[in-house]
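User: structure tokens for this one?
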Amino acid sequence: ASIEASLSFLDVGSHAVTLPLLCLVYLSPLTTILTPLPNFSMYLFGQSGTFKTTAAILALCHFGDFRGVENLSNFDDTVGILEKRSFALKDILHVVDDYHPSHHKHNAANRENTVQKLIRNYSNRTARGRLNSDMTEKGRYEPRGMLLITAEELPTIESTLARVCIVEVGDGAIIKERLTPMQDKAALFPLAMSQYIAWV
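Assistant:
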């Protein structure tokens, strides 16, 4: 029943959106056992009101009980905390929500800098080195899972775009009427994931 519930996620909208998302979900537990590690992130791109964040949260429900955006990473978080979470969230999905345009140049530049660093860190599997006050190394927080960004705009640098799988969510791509029944099934998703991990 849990596997059927997980596979039914595909029918919450267009397969052009749901199939890549479900593939990313089941790739995530394999991240650190693959050689080389996956060198891309997924970018769920669409205008406000297309339910892209709701779809991302449903995907994340394969790893636990997630009901809303309250505990998601977002682009108001600092680069440092996002790096630390990317290290802590080993072999699971790291959803970073709501990369959107800003009319303030400073805010826009900060968000652009954050998204650039985040995508490059995940694709290169690297992170900034840090020093303690006595000049000894603190160590690095290199990403150890898979990254899913929800966004209303694209990064501006082509070399960064080359590191993401862009999934465009247009109007009607996620079917609103199917979301509530799917959310009711979401408690079964972690059971499907645990069976998958045991099988692997």
